[in-house]
Amino acid sequence: VRVFTWFILKLFKVVSSPLGKEVCYQRLGCFTDDPPWSGVPGRLLTGLPDSPEHMNISFNLYTRETGNNSQVISAINSSTIQKSHFSLRRKTSFIIHGFGSTGKKGWVVEMCLLLSEVENINCIAVDWQEGAKGTYVSAVNNIRVIGAEVAYFIKTLQKIFRYSPREIHLIGHSLGAHTAGEAGRRIQGIRRITGLDPAGPYFEGTPPEVRLDPSDADFVDIIHSNAAHFPAIGLGMYNTTGHLDFYPNGGSVMPGCTDFIPEMKQSDFEAIIADATIIGGCHHSRSHEFYFESILHPTGFLGYPCETYKSFESGDCFPCSQEGCPMMGHYADRFPAKLKRVNQKYFLNTAADPPFATWRQKVFIKLSGVKKMRGDINLVFHDTEGNTKEYEIASGVLSQDQVYTKYLDVEINPQNTKKIEFLWNKTIFTLKILHCGQKTQMFKYKPGNNCLERNTAVNNLECILFCHCKTITTQDKASLIPRCITRSIV
C-alpha cells in the first residue's frame, strides 16, 4: 500500500528534489523547473505545467469525408483512430494554436478545412484552450505537456498503426510553434515543423531545448510577423530558429494592421507581459494568415536571401541567385536548397490586404527630351479579371537621360497580367520616351514574348521588353512601357 501511494504521488503531484521541483504525469513522464526551463537569462519564470486532464486536451480530425465537421480521436483510446476517417495512405498535419486561443474554431479549423480539401490529408486540430487561457507564464509552462501529448499521439500512430513520422507536418502559431518543437524534441524523424511567428517572451535567446530549433524536425521553416525589436514590443522572436526563416515586410510590423505598438524600456517589459499579449495581435496573426493564403497562391510569396531588410528594400538581393529562391509558407519545402544550412534568412514584401500575395519586379525607365522638368511617372497593371493596380515609379523633378529604377511588389500575378499602362502626368512641356532601338512598333503584352534576357539554366529570371515609342503629352497615357521589367519566376 505504501509503495502504491508513493507511486500515485509521483505521478500526479509535485515533489521536491535537491535541485528544484518537478511534477510527473502518467504516460508523459516528469517535468522539472530546473535550468534551462527556468532560472536562466531571458527565462526567469516560475511554476510547473498543469496536468493534461486540467487542460482538457483534444485532437480533432478533419478529412474530406468529415466535411465541415470533425471527429474526436485519442491516442489513449486508439480504437477511436481506427474507427475514424484517419487514413494511413495520407499525410498528416497537426495544427497547434497559441496563448488565449482555441483549436475548436477560428483560424485553426479554417486551416484544416483548406488543407484537407486542397491536399486530401489528415488534418488534426489540437485544442488546449483550458491551458492557454490563464496567465501567459502558466501557458508557457503548459506547452511542455502539450508537446509531450502530441509526441505521445505520434508514437501511438507509429507503434500501433506503423505510421511513419516522416508523413507528419506540425504547424504551430506563437506558443504552438514551441509546442511543436517540444514534440519534435521527444520524437525524432518528423518530416517538417512550421513555426508561425514563434512566441518571443521567455524564448528569445534561450537554449535549443526550450524553444523550436532546426534539430526538432527534418525541415523547420519559420514566418516572423511580429518580431520583438526594442524599444517596440513584439510578440514573436526576431532571431532565426529554423532552416529557412522568412521575414515578410521586415518581420515586425505588417502593412494593413492598425494595432498600436508602443515603445518601452526592456526593464518594463517583464512587468506587463500578460497585457502585452493583446498588443500587436494583428501583426502576430498575420503569420498564419500568410500561410493560409500561400496554399492558394503558390507563387505569390517568393523570399529573397538577404542579411537585412534594408538591403532587400534597396534591391541588393534581387534577382534570385543561381540556386533560386524559396516560397514562404506552405510550399517552402519545395526549395531544393532548403537543408543547405540552418538559419537561412529570406525577405519579401506582402500586400496590406488578403490574399497578401505580391510579385517583385524591377522597372527601368529612361527619359529623353528637355533637360529637367517636373512630373510623375506611374505604371498601371491590368489583369484578366478587370482588376487594376497603380504604382509610382518617379515623381518631382525629372532629368533627361536619367534612368529611373524602382522595385515594385505588384499585387497582380504576372501570369494573369493582360496589359500594363505607362502614365505621364507633367506640368509643362512635353517629354519623349526613349527610343527602343529597333523595337519601334507597338505590341500587346504577352508574358514571355520579346525577352531580352532569360536564364534558362536556372529558369528563375526573365526580362521582358515593352515598347511604345512616341511623344507623350500632358495627362496622356500609353499601353506598355519602354525598356524592361525584370522579375523572378518559378
Automatic annotation (TrEMBL):
Q: What class of enzyme is it?
A: hydrolase
Name the catalytic site residues: S174 (nucleophile), D197 (charge relay system), H284 (charge relay system)
Q: Which GO terms describe its molecular function?
A: lipoprotein lipase activity; metal ion binding
- One protein family per Pfam: Lipase
Q: Please indicate if the UniProt record lists Metal-binding as a keyword.
A: yes
Give the EC number: 3.1.1.3
**Which catalysed reactions does the entry list for this protein?**
a triacylglycerol + H2O = a diacylglycerol + a fatty acid + H(+)
Q: Which UniProt keywords apply?
A: Calcium, Disulfide bond, Lipid degradation, Lipid metabolism, Metal-binding, Secreted, Signal
Domain of life where this protein originates: Eukaryota
Cellular location of this protein?
Answer: Secreted
Checking InterPro entries in the record gives: AB_hydrolase_fold, Lipase, Lipase_LIPH, Lipase_N, Lipase_panc, PLAT/LH2_dom_sf, TAG_lipase
Question: Tell me, which GO biological process terms does this entry list?
Answer: lipid catabolic process
Q: Quote the cellular component terms of the Gene Ontology held in the record.
A: extracellular region
Q: Which residues form the signal peptide?
A: 1-16
Q: Which Gene3D superfamilies match?
A: alpha/beta hydrolase, PLAT/LH2 domain
Concerning its family, UniProt says:
Belongs to the AB hydrolase superfamily. Lipase family.
PANTHER family referenced in this protein's UniProt entry, alphabetically? LIPASE, PANCREATIC LIPASE-RELATED PROTEIN 3
Identification of the protein by name: Triacylglycerol lipase
